[in-house]
Amino acid sequence: MRKGGTFWVAASALVLASCGGGGSSSGGGGATGGGPAPTPTPPPAGQVFSVPAAESLTSAEVGTIIAQAAAEARARGVAATIAVTDRVGNVLGVFAMPGAAPTARIPSAPDGSNQDAQGLTIPSAGAAIAKAITGAYLSSGGNAFSSRTASFIVQEHFPPAPTTAGLESGPLFGVQFSQLPCSDLAARASDGFIGPKRSPLGLAADPGGFPLYQNGVVVGGIGVIADGSYSFDPNVLDRDPDVDEAIALAGTVGFEAPISIRADRITADGTSLRYTDVEYSQISNVAGASFTGTAGALVPVTGYYMGTALLAGAAYGSEASGVRASTAAEFANRDAFVLSNGAGASRFPVRGGTDAGDVASPLTAAEARVILDEAFTVMSRARAQIRQPLDSRAQVTISLVDTRGQVLGLVRSPDAPIFGIDVSLQKARTANFFSGAFAANELLAAGGEVPQFVARTRAFLGDPTALTGGFAFSDRAGGNLSRPYFPDGEVGQPNGPLSRPIARFNPFSTGLQSALIVGNLAQHLAFVTGASAQDTPRSCTSLPQVTAGATRLDNGIQIFPGAVPVYRGNVLVGGIGVSGDGIDQDDMISFLGLNNGALRASGGLNNAPNAIRADRIVVAVGSRQVRLRYVNCPFAPFLDTAAQNVCEGL
C-alpha cells in the first residue's frame, strides 16, 4: 500500500495549476442567513410524498456564488479554489484565484504512517469538487448537511472529541468511501449531463462544503479549499475559525439552507449534529459581488469540467438530471423515482437474477419487483430520523442485487438524499458478498494487502472457514468487524479484523474498505493530473471478474448498517440495501421489506435463517463473550400505527 501512496504523490506533483432566495442576499455583514423552510407542497392526490419543485442554478447564479466566495477569500487575505456543482453532481464551475495552491495534503495516520489515502498530495480542484458534491449529496428538502456534518458522523467516536472516547463510531462510519470515481453506478462527465456523478475523492469530511438552496429545494453545492489541508475535525467541542468554511459559507449567501433543516436542528442518538463553526455574522458583506472582474480563472479538471465557461445546472427530477419519476410500466407506485439514461430509459430496470449458472433458483423479475415494492411500502410508512419537520416520512433509495452483484432493480422516494443511491447499492453488494461461499476465495485472489484480511478475520473469529458462506452477514454485522475498536468504541480493545488499528486509523484509511479501492483511486488521480491517459475502469477493486468487466463489488463496500442478504431457504440469492435516513430505519426497511416481499412472493424467499445469522457469532474479548449484531429496528417506527418492535421474531 505504501507503493500505491507513492504513486499518488508522484502523480499529484504534476498538477498545474435567506432561505432559497436565488439572488436575494441575506448573509454577511451581521445577517444570520437563511430563514424558515417554506411550507411543503402537499403531495399530489394518491401519493404520500411531495415532489421537489423543478429548481436549478443558472450560469449567472453560479458566477455569483463563486464571486461571493472569492470576495470573502480576498477579505481574509487568502487565495482559494472554488467549485460549484448541481444537485446530481455535475460540475458547473471550478475557479482558482491568483496564487491559489494547486495541491492540498491529506493527513497521515496518528502514528505518522501512511496507508491507502493517508499522507497523499491531491489536486485542490479535486478537493473542492468533492466538498461541493458532499454538500449537495447529503442534503434534501428535509435536511441540510455540510462537509462538517460529514466529519461529525464518520469518525471512530460519535460525537468526535477527546472526551468522548468510549462511545460508538459515527452513524455513517465509512460513507466517505462512496461516490467513488471507479463506481459503476456513478456517471462520468463523458456521459453527458445525467447524474448522479462520481466524486474524485468520494465524500469529504473536510469543512468547506455546503449545499445550495432555492426556495427550499437543493440545487447544488459549493466546495472551497484555501488552507492546503484536506482533513477532518477531530473535536466538535470547540468552534474552529476555518477559512475554507468561511469562504464557502459566503458563497451560499442568497442560496442558504433553510435554518429549520440545517444539521444542528437534527439529532442522531440524542446528539445534535453540526452544520458550521462559522456564522453568517462573521463573514463580510459580499452582496453585489460580480463574477465579471473577479481576479482568477476557470480551471479545467480532466474527467469533470472543461474549464471554458460557467454552466447551468440540471433541474433535479427532470430526465436531463438522470433522476426522475418512474413511469407506470417501471413501478406501479406513483411515488417511485428511478435513475434514467437521459433518453427516457431506466438505467436499472427490474429484472431477474443473472446468476443461473451459480444458483439453482435465482431471483425472478416478479420476485425482485415484489421485494422492492414491499421495501418501498415500509419506507412510506416509516418515521424519518434525519428529516425536519418531525414526523416526516423516511426517504431512501433501495437497491436489490443477485449473487454476482448485478443490479436487479433500484427505486427511491422523490426527495431522498442523492448519496444514498450509490450507498444503497454498496450495502446490497456488501451483504451479499460477505454472506457468500465465494467471499474468502475472491479476497484471497485480489491484489495488494487485501488477502491479509481473510487470515485476520479467521484468527479473530477463531474460525478457519470464515467467509465461506457459513454465516449470513448484514452490513451491521460486517460493520462490527470493521471498527478500530471491538466492541465498537471501547478504548483499549483491539481493532476489528477488517479495520486498521486505531494508531493507524483515520477517515482516509478504514481497513479493507479502503484497501479494496486504493488502486482505483491512484489510477484515477493519475488520469486527473495528466500523468496517465487511462482513467480507472467503471469497476472498483481488484477482485476476480465474475462477468465480463465486472466484479461482485463494482462500487466498493460499505460498512455501516442498512442491508441484509436475501435467501431462498438456506441458499443465498442476493442482497437488498437501503440508504438515506437513520441507520436503524435503513436496517428496518431492508429487513422488513424483504420479509414482507418474501411472504407476498410465496416462492420460498426469506431473510437469512436464524441459525446462520451473524448474530450467532460470539467473539471472546478478555473474559467476555461479545455477540455480533444483525439488525436494529426502531422501537416504534411507523406513522400510521403505534406498533412496536416490528422486526421482533422475524
UniProtKB/TrEMBL annotation:
Keyword Amino-acid biosynthesis: no
Keyword Zinc-finger: no
Segments of skewed composition (Gly residues): 25-36
Stretch forming the signal peptide: 1-17
Any one Pfam family match given in the protein's UniProt record, by short name: HbpS-like
Keywords associated with the record: Signal
Region named Disordered: 25-45
Superkingdom, natural source: Bacteria
Name the UniProt record assigns to this protein: Uncharacterized protein GlcG (DUF336 family)
Organism placement in taxonomy: Bacteria, Pseudomonadati, Pseudomonadota, Alphaproteobacteria, Sphingomonadales
